[in-house]
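Retro notes (design track)

What went well: tokenization of the new backbones is finally stable.
What didn't: we kept losing track of which sequence belonged to which structure.
Fix going forward: every design gets posted as structure first, then sequence, in one message. First example under the new rule, 186 residues:
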């Protein structure tokens, strides 16, 4: 079965745009086995798999992703075959499938799973001028093993009538004895 020649990792919490997704995924595909990826040339069109589908292994659970998958299919003509599961289960599945994995793209939601997947050696490096142009260096692996898709903001919320901002403005402050047993993470 022909499939995308590169697997990439996408990490994030919320979707960006359909154009971003379609460019991200199609820029990774190339069915030839030489290392000249046509998508590395910005003037050439993105390569697409000859199977007409991309197998997306995803642990994301966001309703917006369905819109992204449908938009990607509409824009590119490539069907998204979604395989959903818990991140650790998908990592183990890809690892056990080895070179025979059907996964073209692995998408998860947090950096802890990124480290687990990297430790499991399930990533294949990819090089793409499009990805490098559109994704900041701080959101991608320097060796091309993964590319961040979105960022997640962690915030501290508190009642300003009861807590002064200077008392609780960093995560380190939360670890202090004053706040022991008083916080919730949700």
């Amino acid at each position: 079965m022909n499939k995308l020649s590169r697997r990439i990792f996408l990490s994030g919490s919320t979707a960006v745009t359909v154009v971003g997704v379609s460019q991200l995924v199609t820029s990774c595909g190339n069915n030839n086995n030489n290392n000249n990826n046509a998508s590395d040339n910005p003037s050439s069109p993105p390569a697409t798999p000859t199977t007409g589908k991309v197998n997306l292994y995803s642990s994301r659970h966001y309703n917006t992703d369905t819109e992204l998958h449908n938009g990607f299919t509409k824009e590119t003509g490539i069907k998204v075959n979604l395989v959903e599961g818990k991140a650790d289960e998908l990592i183990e599945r890809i690892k056990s499938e080895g070179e025979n994995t059907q996964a073209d793209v692995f998408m998860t939601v947090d950096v802890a799973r990124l480290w687990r997947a990297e430790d499991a050696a399930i990533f294949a490096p990819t090089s793409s001028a499009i990805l490098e142009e559109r994704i900041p260096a701080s959101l991608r692996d320097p060796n091309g093993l993964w590319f961040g898709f979105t960022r997640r903001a962690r915030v501290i919320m508190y009642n300003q009538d009861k807590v002064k901002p200077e008392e609780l403005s960093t995560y380190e402050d939360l670890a202090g004895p004053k706040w022991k047993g008083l916080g919730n993470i949700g």
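Added context from the reviewer: Residues 155-186 form one domain.
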